[in-house]
Amino acid sequence: MAFALLSTAVMAGPRPIVSLEFFAPKTPEGSSRLRLLSAGFGALAPAYFSVTCATDEAGPDRTLRTVRELRAHLGPAVDLAPHFTCVGSSRDSVRRLLDAYRSLDVRHVVLIRGDLPAGMREWAGDFPHASDLVAFVRREAGDQLRIEVAAHPEFHPDAPSADDDLASFKRKADAGAASALTQYFYNADAYVHFVESCSRLGVTLPIVPGIMPITSFERLARFSAAAGVEIPRWLHRRLEGLAHDPQSLQAFGADVVTRLCQRLLELGAPGLHFYTMNSAEPVRMIWTRLGLG
């Protein structure tokens, strides 16, 4: 029953849509590394590259600069999807960014709420919820942009309850989102349950699982604690035991994540969205094992 419902809810076609996410570098050296990285990944022919947007004051400009550099380096055929965040965004600032991205032939965006920067205690900006930003961009851009939003199979850590989080996700879908990218997770059942719950609410847009390669126990534990991601106990203990053996940890992590990806695709997930952390080899290893290129 779970397989049938999941397949009906999210299948987008026989071929999985595989995409890669980069973060916008802060230094010229980081930008140079990203250009080389994206060129190498380009040979794998992902469906698109997304570029994150930090919630500090310079974040939107850094993302725009990165997208501009990638467009110049990779050419017009590559699909680029910049992120927009609600934090600190005004209607005018979003309009300016939309105009700038339109000039770069960007037709795909990722809209998220974003977390308050350290030290900021009160919300700032015209968009208190991601659904507000989605509705605004849809009105401004019409059907010219594909809008993706965030989803949380293990539920957003700030949500008062699972039902509240599902209702928030439905509002984003109703506001005009075309598809969703999930926070990373290591429990495929959480994804299945989330998609089934969305389907019961009438939300049937494609929900693409986010995939985080495992390269460091300490970094993964830190990220997961901040993002509200559960590391299953068995996985936590194995990674903890390998923390001082990076080579073995990365080999084990690649096995775990590859099996997770295989199961998700078998269950009917429409694709995979890799959080690269601007590092090539961990993603390339999983990509090759999955036979994606």
Describe this structure in words.
- This protein is an alpha/beta fold and 293 residues long.
- It has a single domain, classed as Alpha-Beta Barrel (TIM Barrel), CATH 3.20.20.
- It is 49% helix and 14% strand.
- The protein has eleven helices and eight strands.
- An eight-stranded parallel β-barrel has the order 1-2-3-4-5-6-7-8, surrounded by four helices.
- It is globular.
Q: What is the CATH architecture assignment?
A: Alpha-Beta Barrel
How many domain modules?
Answer: 1
The Cα radius of gyration reads 18 Å
Task: Report low-confidence residues grouped into runs of 5 or more.
Answer: 1-13
Order of helices and strands: HEHEHEHEHEHEHEHHHEH
| Average pLDDT reading | 92
Report the total helices: 11
Lateral strand order in the biggest sheet: 1-2-3-4-5-6-7-8
CATH topology: TIM Barrel
CATH class: Alpha Beta
Number of strands: 8
The biggest beta sheet reads: 8 strands, parallel, barrel
The structure class reads alpha/beta
Report a brief summary of the structure:
The chain is α/β, with parallel strands linked by helices.
